[in-house]
Amino acid sequence: MSSKVIAGRYELLQKIGDGGMAVVYKSRDRLLNRFIAVKILKPEYSNDAKFIENFKKESHAAASLSHPNIVNIYDVGKEGNINYIVMELVEGKPLSQIIQEDAPLDYRRVIEISKQVAAGLGAAHKHGIIHRDVKPHNILISSDGIAKIADFGIAKAVSTTTIVDGTNQQVMGSVHYFSPEQARGAHVDARSDIYSLGIVMYEMLTGEVPFDADNPVSVALMHINNEITPPSQLVANIPPQLEKVVLKATDKYQANRYETAEEMIEALNDIEFVTRMVGAGAGAAAAAAAVPPQRRRVYDEDDDYDDDYEEERPKKKKKNSGGGKKKWIIIGCAAAVVGVLGLLYAFGIIGGKLITAPDLTGLTIEQAEAKCDKYDLKVEASDYKYSDDYAIDEICEQDPPAGDKIRQGRTISVTISKGGEEGTVPNLVGKSKDEAEKLLTKYGFKVGKETYKTSGEDKDTVIEQTPGAGEETKPGSEIDIVLSDGKGDKEAKVPDVTGLSQSAAEAAIKEAGFKVGTVSHASSSNYSKGTVMAQQYPADSTLTQNSTIDITVSTGSSSSVSLYIDYSDADQEVFYMTVTVSDDNGTRNVVSNAQRKKSDEGETLKVKGTGTGTITVIFDDNTVMKKSVDFDSGTIS
Fold first, then answer.
1. Which of 11, 103, 199, 258 could form a disulfide with 263 if both were Cys (CB 3.0 to 4.6 A apart)?
2. 630 has catalytic annotation
3. pLDDT of 281-319, one tens digit each?
4. Catalytic, out of 29, 133, 193, 583
């Protein structure tokens, strides 16, 4: 399949993944000259209209997300019987493979990965999108250590490790990672994703999932009923505060978990700040000291602990107990603590108000400084690098990253873009003439020949360029552009109206700048009565505005009734019979001018229809029977 090209631009190169519902190919976008991933729905799902409908809707929802920790979706479409999604290609490994190879992972690595996943989830939750299937297989770790969440909001196919709802259509999640409310079929919200992330953290820390059994139903019941074994009982030297984060995230009750992903990130930041400066052991000691003496856990020399609590009780004084020596040890420890606090203050970890680091990417250094003045922060350019995503002199990276907690007065280190790699032509299509000229200057090129062409795009919008975006040419070369004269017909994308009510579909068509064409009706077992089951043009295809779009509205499932027709009412021995049905699908003849004999006495006719209506029987030119019928209930009156 390596020679297959989809939509005239996506060249499939090699298969890199094969899941329950789709196959993923490493591919090349010929138009933009970049590598991408193309996910193709497996053939067995191509004829399931409801599945395809959900696939498209959820893919479009996921495509609305743009975040460094979410795999970007560039395009969704269909060619023939192939349904596909075009995604960002992440060079790296799934977290599941990393866990299999390296677990238990170092707690610092667990914190870093978890913060990035939580950041991606938080961005999705703000858009009202819940993942519902957070698991290591759906978390990709790029070669430079960036965690990216994949399969966002896309329905999963049924497998031996998933649970579905009663319709066998919507997968609730992967059983080892989903929340108790998913297991119960109850309301799912952002805290359900937080629970799943907590399970992923548990597996990173221990190399094991907390619940496992021979079948998925048993695992689901364990999520509902069984308490999680603290990870520190499986692996030593896990900071107690990190264990607290895992146990809070995986609490059985949603109300007891973190309310938001951002709240969870803040808790992880607090652990990271302390352990970065004083080490995990000191963090464990500090956590132990914060527990009241009556409930203090007993730690061994390896920082591990058991579940028994040591009651504080009076002890007899001992002679030569070394009290003087202990006194100097206490003084030394106090001095060390003061020193550590001084370091924390000097580095801005303590002291000053804790705020959220602003996003500086895409700004110039001057713009970033002006923005940070408002937050009492400083900006320092620490590096320069080529970037295809940011123009020359724009900030492409920052440390700490946007969204992290930071103390006022601290300095944010930024990396400045040197523009795209030398000789790579930027994409100008869709930009105004002025924007295109500025962009070419930043990339080291010149504006070449400018011509105009009739187009529905706004006047002076670039509609073509030579050389094309992503092509290589010498720095300083001229790039020819074709501009719109603004005199052509406006075009717009066709909305997806399948599954909507007729009134909602008509409103959506008009709002998109089109007209409603012919409205026909047909029966359907996949679409409820009154909803649109088909549309003339596929969703997201481009069409001239004011064009008409035909739709087909479902009349519900077709059913049949049995009607006995008595021939005794016929005037002649040989006569001609016509049977007419009027129902929600309109009026039609089910028997048309068919010859019958009166001596045959009669016949039972099975009549199919939808909704309610009438059946009329005509012998020659005389109406001999007219019955009201309800096809839904199967009654005739």
1. 258
2. no
3. 444 444 433 333 333 333 333 333 333 333 333 333 444
4. 133
